[in-house]
Amino acid sequence: MTILSDLISRIKTPNLVEQMRIITETVLEEESSDMEYIDYRPQGPNLFLALQVPGRTPTQIGFLALERENEDSWLVSFWTTKESDIKKAIESETKPSLKKRKMHEITDHRPEKILTEYAKLMKFYHGE
């Protein structure tokens, strides 16, 4: 049994959104120590997970986000900002501007499939 399957088997709610919230919060807890700019990731009510990835250039920071578009539609979006903008934001205690660069639609509606697609894209953005 994989870690993801084990986690899903312990979730007692049949509600997909609640399942995804529980799973993504667990993933974020595990991965947050590897994220240099965790406080500057994209956030929102329908954004479930955003992990740091390399940007399109060496001077950019990227984030890969898992979003719910509506009840039946999930997206993985790639966001970027300049590292210098994050450093300015840290100094001024503001948020840097993030730009959504790319979106990938996920057509499956099972938690394990949604997160498997997210993991595949994570590897892609890391250049693996």
Distance between the termini: 24 Å
The overall strand count is: 4
| Total of helices | 4
Give the oligomeric state: single chain
Approximate helicity band: 25-40%
Task: Look at the helices and sheets and give the structural class.
Answer: alpha+beta
Radius of gyration: 15 Å
| Major β-sheet annotation | 4 strands, antiparallel
Q: What is the total number of structural domains? A: 1
Low-confidence stretches: none
Which percent range describes the beta-strand content? 25-35%
Give the strand order of the largest sheet, numbering strands 1, 2, ... along the chain: 1-2-3-4
| SSE string, helices as H and strands as E | HHEEEHEH
- Overall form: globular
On the 0-100 scale, what is the average pLDDT?
89
Give a topology summary:
Blueprint: H1 3-10, H2 16-31, E1 47-54, E2 60-70, E3 73-82, H3 83-92, E4 99-106, H4 111-125
Antiparallel strand pairs: 1-2, 2-3, 3-4
What does this structure look like?
- This protein has a four-stranded antiparallel sheet with strand order 1-2-3-4.
- The longest helix has 16 residues.
- It has four helices and four strands.
- It is an alpha+beta fold and 128 residues long.
- A hairpin with a 5-residue loop joins β1 and β2.
- The chain has one domain.
- It is globular, with a radius of gyration of 15 Å.
- Helices cover 38% and strands 29% of the residues.
